[in-house]
């Protein structure tokens, strides 16, 4: 009997993005950033515009936060907050270079009618480390987000929060090593996690798609899924093929310029989950 390809269902999403008007790499807070290497801001803007256009074509809503000079990493809106049930837990960044982004996000959420807007009391880099998977949050730690922030998220959102420990500095945020495909499915790169976290992931998601090292190293896991369509960096070819075999539609995107800051499509995309 031929293997059945599962039917996947897309759900329209609401995203927050920030145009990379001030994008550059002039400090290094992750191993991908090299201030010596030139960046092309105009190209970053074009790649970002393409991403935004694609979301709209796929039926999603994109809201924008104003880019601020001196905050070149602001394009990575995923780090600004975690939003669930209309509640926004606004980031507290580990590095002083990004601290100013917290105020900008807090002001944005306050101005847009969220029922609760709280600034994290511990280091918490938003959806970089706190990924919502159905009624559960998968929460990364090891490089950026403090484990105490996981407990704070549990208290605010009232959902299960499972901690996962990252061990490879190249995969410094959870969203560089794991992507949520829909409420019940994920894909990830096992070697980015501690042995205990690998065991936890195996027990939670026995049928998960596993990325190989080459696809993880081109940020293939920094992907955005609407349940069916999965936008991921274009060089992650084997991962795209695995997604297609599992009934998802891979949508490769060119984010080469944005990768110089250590971020891909997911880093540029914060999901807004209404009440
Ligand atoms: N340069 C940024 C940093 O190191 C990149 C953030 C990428 N965002 C993400 N969600 N992983 O903080």
Automatic annotation (TrEMBL):
EC assignment: 3.5.3.18
Source domain of life: Bacteria
UniProt keyword annotations, A-Z: Hydrolase
Protein name per UniProt: Dimethylargininase
Family matches, as Pfam families: DDAH_eukar (PF19420)
GO MF annotation: an example: dimethylargininase activity
